[in-house]
């Protein structure tokens, strides 16, 4: 299974000081949650890990090789990204969109075969959007589109799954369904690294957490050791209380009158 490593990585957030160099090792079986306030650089980090943005300094290594030295096709076979905002500008059906996930695995101009179709079908079914497979993507609701994007990543089947707020637009049932799916993928050997705004999803589902501060400071480690009330209050500049539910802490923001 592939693994992704950052070596003294400084992401390039415009007009920000360098901050703390990231030395993170994202490995098979792990589920990472990246937490931080708006503008902290979560999306920038994800895009840098995917090789879509250059770092300011340091490196991203995919199986010990700098990402920049690898062919995009090789990278796309091992690493996939669900974007936060997608411009689905050209008309495509849900099935056509899911099949885009197979492109890294096909030679140029090679058409998708039966197995590719089957993979896409299974992924769409896993995300409860198989019944929409003939619909144009542009006609879907926000949550349906989000599930198609995750199904496309599942169809791509890389070892490393990068996701930018995967529960965006999802109702509660589908939030849990997606988190279960990500946990099952990690249990099967994938590595999952996602930005989250919901602390409680991180507390319940992530094995590892990276806290990213607006000034570029960062810390990371096993989830239980990172999800401490004081650290999270400092991260979000927000008063929180903790209540226990099902053996997992639930963080609740409170109005401190400030
Ligand atoms: N092209 C750009 N020019 C100037 N500033 C930029 C550019 N792209 C991103 N930024 C800034 O970089 C910072 C980090 O953006 P990023 O999208 O990574 O944050 P984020 O943590 O994902 O935020 P959010 O929680 O709101 O999604 C933001 O302040 C953003 O305005």
TrEMBL record:
Pfam families: ABC_tran
Stored CDD domains: ABC_Iron-Siderophores_B12_Hemin
Identification of the protein by name: ABC transporter ATP-binding protein
Annotated source species: Denitrificimonas halotolerans
Function description: Part of the ABC transporter complex HmuTUV involved in hemin import. Responsible for energy coupling to the transport system.
Domain ABC transporter: 4-239
Lineage: superkingdom: Bacteria
GO molecular function terms attached to this record: ATP binding
SUPFAM superfamilies in alphabetical order: P-loop containing nucleoside triphosphate hydrolases
PANTHER family on file: HEMIN IMPORT ATP-BINDING PROTEIN HMUV
Keywords: ATP-binding, Nucleotide-binding, Translocase, Transport
InterPro entries per the UniProt record, alphabetical: AAA+_ATPase (IPR003593), ABC_transporter-like_ATP-bd (IPR003439), ABC_transporter-like_CS (IPR017871), P-loop_NTPase (IPR027417)
